[in-house]
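Narrative progress, year one. The postdoctoral researcher (J.K.) led the effort to move from monomer predictions toward full complexes, under supervision of the PI. The following entry was the first complex the group processed end to end, covering 1236 residues in total.
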Amino acid sequence: MMGRQVEQTRVVGTSVPRVDALEKVTGAARFTDDLQFGPDLLFGRVVRSPHAHARIVSIDTAAALQMPGVRAIITGADTPGFIGLYLRDRHILATDRVRQVGDPVAGVIASTEQAAEDGARAIRVEYELLPGVFDPFEAVQAGAPLIHPDLGSYDVASFLYPRPGTNISHHFRIRKGDVDGAFGRCDTILEDTYRAPQIQHVPIETHVAIARWEQTGEVTLWSATQSPFAQRSMIAAAMGIEPGNVRVIGNYIGGGFGCKAGVTMEGLAVAMARRVPGRPVKVRLTREEEFFCSFVRQALVAKVKIGATREGKVLALQVEYYWDGGAYTEYGTNITRAAGYSSTGPYFVPSVMTDSYCVYTNNPTGGPMRGFGMPEIHWSIEQVMDRLAEKLGMDRVQFRLLNCIREGQETVSGMTMHATGLSQCIKRVAKDIQWGEKEPPSAPHKLRGKGIAIMWKAPAMPRNAASEAWVVFNEDGTFNLGVGGQELGQGSFTVAAQMAAEVLGVPMDRVRVARPVDTRYSPYEWQTVASRLTWSMGNAVRAAATDARKQILDLVGRCWGETPADLDIRNGEVISYKSERSVGLDKLVICGLSMPGDRELIGGPIMGRGRFMPTYVTDLDKETGQGTHGMVHYTTGAEAVELEVDTATGQVEVLRVAAAFDVGKAINPELVKAQIEGGVVQGMSSGLFEALRLKNGEPLNSSFVDYRIVTTLDAPQEIITAVVETAQDDGPWGARGVGEHTMVPTAPAIANAIYDAIGIRFNEMPLTAEKIYLALAHKA
Amino acid sequence: MLSRPGLPSFDYVRAGSHDEVVRLLVTGGPDVRLLMGGTDLLVRMRDGVVRARTLVDVKHLPGMRTIAYDSAAGLTVGAAVTMNQLASNADVRAHYAILAEAASAVASYQVRNRATLGGNLCNASPAADTAPAVMVLGGRLVLCGPEGEREVPIDEFFLGPGKSARQANEFLTAVRLPPPRQGARGTYLKLGRNREGDLAVVGVGVLGSPSSEVPPGYAFSIALASVAPVPLRATAAERLLAGQKPGGAAFAAAAQLAAQEARPIDDVRSGVAYRRAMVESLTRRGLETVWRGLSAASSGRGR
Amino acid sequence: MATHSITLTVNGAKEQVDVASNWTLLQLLRDRLALTGTKNGCSAGECGACTVLLNGEPVNSCLVLAVEADGANVVTVEGLAHDGQLDPLQQAFIDEGAVQCGFCTPGMLLSARALLTRNPHPSEREIRQALVGNLCRCTGYARIVRAVQKAAG
């Protein structure tokens, strides 16, 4: 790999204001539910299974069809095709059986939402109950009810290994080194089981989709989605139409965090629209549906065994992950894989044996959520590392510095680790939290503690996940930047605009990001997931802008008889360092230039195009999980927490969080810090508050009344953020992603700090006040 | 079953008089519901828990939105007075501070702009934040029915979750509180899963005042929310305090008794053991807080 | 189901509309008046995304019947700026980076506007208390609190 020189930049690296901020503070920003369709609009509501596992015996729609306003009803017979990102294991509507509470069984299209709801309530579905299984560890045991008897016939991505005849939809393995021998050389071995429950993403905007089936057979889908292009291909495949006939338009998204990736409910709108050609049909999830009818974060049972020498060197690790994938694991299977190939956490461990199982249960469907498995596995890794340090009598920070992965070391999946500022991040948060100093608690009934946790995460995606971008100009010299990645709050449009402005030598206010993303007019983007936009889309944007720049400089060079190397674009003008001539972009980007003398016209509208695909990523071996370049790179970071525990109530108050992440290059430092702050608080929320409470697959708290998230008053009093920049070879200006990473270490850092405060370990999230209080009472 | 996307159909009637409200209640039966702030009713109608054909809006009727204080007669709070009105009213803050404190513990600021004292009590939820305050203050509820008005002491009002002494043909018009006890101090302590904004997992109201009627010279009232089928007076704890010198030992013993008196259930918000323990923690903390106030006042007078 | 003819003032403009009994103020604003800046996040008064000012005070418009707003003065996010001049809160939200996905932003702005009107110089704790009914999943709240402080001057 080549080394990277620090480049002089004018826009990249500065904290320009968001390009979408003005629209968003004035109420002008259009989200999908805000789009106006006039009286044409019809509404869809969905009949959902009240049972976790049952056979559909019959569906009686006769009464519903007679209801006022009801136009049509769809059932599983209308949606025979399979759908799924990595494993096609579901239908848009259940056909013969339901596998989770909330599984869609029928859809009603009506003139108003209320009429559609009334119609849905008039549909009678007869079920024959089937035995269910609700724990991933139980689901892999022999004799467990089989949830997908046809698993062997499903289409599946080449890097996934389902086991037909079982509930295991993917088994990812690491076999690295001689694990038994390595444990034999360890002086200290620790073994335990950790659990993380299902949680939900809780975007403030629930899922919404509007579909219109045109008379031509084309279908337009407006959806609140992180994945317009993936929806195009997945819905087309499921509906048996050509992807080119599916047009997906993605407006601003009111928070995604992974639950709006892939396809969940959007196919319902399309299937309904097919029955009422020419009329748009809107389907919108209620908040209650949002909690379990799109994606939840998969629950995890993690069995961990780890060993180290008395000098503190970790030698061996053995883990088993049982992921509760829920009723359908079309997306969750790849989380299992990502967790497996990252199962050491950000540590160098020479001998590793990992078995990561994606398991079907009759719980809500698991899917991607901020961190893609990393928060769940770091929950165990980072507590185990703390305990090892304690057993060895070592400082928890020093222990991490001793074992954390460094450039040149081999990762768990056999890749040579690239340059990383992980040690710097650890040192930085230790300094910022004043590690080693203990303040007295603020009241006699409180105990104070500090904790640290570190993390890594690589973008998890297929090798061919591509990005494309274009730049076209307007006659005033402003330009439109086409991207296919979505703006869901992370600032992707702003960062993309900064990159293009940088290359093209114009101020930010000359850039127009072409939105909404529209699969008919926007360049391709695989999905807005995996914290990959700044990096992958950024590479495409840089290439597109560079392409346009080259065309411009070639044109001017030819006209002026100069070499492009002597030309530059500054503040919207092409200038020559040699002749000191200049010309505004507005004079040449559409209509070209006149040659001197004969005044022949040269040039024409400038259009720059760029693309990026990580072609250098290799497969991982099926048996060993080893490969030379199985993932593009890892972003690393650390967080340290100081908190107080109220011993009279068990309540935790997070006083301060220090966070440092190595983003390679902060394209917009304030946006990076904003990501860190948001991730810390979401991580804290998952660590202290959140769990979807399930009883035999039925959610008991599917509303904000009883699914509580962090509010203004619960959030930490202070979040100290630090940005570390160790340039990434394959990133634009050295950048790598950071959106998801920020929530990964928070929950274990809190758990470690609680241990520091009260001397009690907890193996299962969340650490509610009740759990802490009862543990304190038990200890006393 | 999942909640509806919107409200089911019903008719809205803006009542012109007390008599009209009673007439509608009598003729409409259980299909008629009274609309005050709507912050609970509308949510439960969307959830399908409450069904109603007619909502009768009563909050604009005379007196429903007024707070009247008289040092001799006490306080009269119209049933449709909002939580924010209560929390910011100068008389309430000066003489019935525990009620202002309880009102501001309800949900969020936006909700408190709509949620009413009458609605909070008439829902007869065990978790009603204002119930313990009104209980320790000795409140009486004014009910208007076919036979005219009657008053029910709050200790007799709550009959079970969602059940109260209000008859189907009656509606609550006001809550009356006796004149404040001289030198009284009170506090409402609420424990939710979030610092603020949540429903009470446990709520404890404590009122203390100098009293010549009991040997220690101070009388204490304690009421509990969210730990029994109804908001509950901790009478055994109160009796104990009536016979012991105030202070750490008595408060600890009283808090223990209060915890024993509680009859909590396991639900999605919390379990029995934690709720019981929190009754003890909060009662003790409440008694200590109130006692600090009382002690400071008495030493102030001594100077 | 009966409909009701109501008049109300929305962002300074007088409106006369017929509404069904079961329509919420949120539905009236979004679906009838096309003021879609006000967001629907939960329909249960828990998330605050639908917060508007009703006679100057913030309410969850999902828990107010449209008919209850008869005669009222309503301000939505679209009515915060005047004569092309942003409300200081809007400018502060931009300057402090208090916006991410933007879905909670309108409600946040209106809760904050009401706070600054009744308490022009709130403490950090008072700001956090005033916004406890406005959930945000993106920002972690710190920049929102800072923006309100900045707008308060």
